[in-house]
Amino acid sequence: MSINKNSITYQVYNMLKEKILKQELKIGEKINSRKIAEDNEISAMPVRDSLLKLTNEGLVINKPRVGFYVRDFTEEEIDNIIEVRKMYETYCLDNHFNNIDKNKAKNLKKKMDLIENDLNRKEFDKIDTELHYTFIKASENNFLIEKYDQIKDLVILFQHIHLTRMEKSHQEHQKIVSNILNGNKKKVIGLVKEHLLDVNEGIKKSLGKNQNK
Ligand code: NI
């Protein structure tokens, strides 16, 4: 019995997490737990357990007596998360540049060129994630990779928040991967820093955080 209950909770948890990360449930939106239970013909318990788990992971906010909401981020929190990303990515590039998987980079460049004239969200996201992981994996340090994984959900969520700048990001990715293949470490680090700064701006703009600037 308990296995069954757990697996329902696990399924609901995965479903809700995906909806949040893909922004089908928007930032700041109230989550209607009763409707989720009804739509999936399950009891309220696994929905509540899932939402509590997501609250622990920082993707959901639990307002007592009001309900669950998709978490919103302050400007400062966005800065802080991007800073952590920058720290890991530039560190790995600076210290393990020669260890970057060149075949993987070549493949990524091919994939980027292929979607150049027909940019679609799904492919773009996949390439984006793969590219940034290539830097991290160059460290071959499982402790470091595990730490970076802790912010992975937020990275994916942020990908789906700033939808407007896919073309610009795509061009930046192309420049980055070309310079990896040319062995131009300094240039790559500079480009990645600029890219993350742009990502930061894009997220804030999409969330309406810097309207007064
Ligand atoms: Ni990127």
Order of helices and strands: HEHHEEHHHHHHH
The total beta strand count reads 3
What is the SS-derived class?
mainly alpha
Instruction: Using the 3D structure, state the CATH architecture of the largest domain.
Output: Up-down Bundle
Nearest-integer average pLDDT = 91
Helicity range:
55-70%
> Which small-molecule species are bound to the chains here?
nickel (II) ion
CATH topology grouping of the largest domain: Four Helix Bundle (Hemerythrin (Met), subunit A)
β-strand amount: under 5%
Largest sheet report = 3 strands, antiparallel
Strand order of the largest sheet: 1-3-2
Structure description:
This protein is mainly alpha-helical. It has 2 domains: 8-70, Orthogonal Bundle (Arc Repressor Mutant, subunit A); 75-206, Four Helix Bundle (Hemerythrin (Met), subunit A), CATH 1.20.120.530. It is built from 10 helices and 3 strands. Strands 1-3-2 form a 3-stranded antiparallel β-sheet, with helices on one face. Strand 2 and strand 3 (67-70) form a beta hairpin. The longest helix is centred in the middle third of the chain and has 22 residues, at 75-96. The chain is elongated. The model has no long low-confidence stretch (mean pLDDT 91). The structure holds nickel (II) ion (NI). The site of nickel (II) ion has 5 residues, from helix 6 and helix 9.
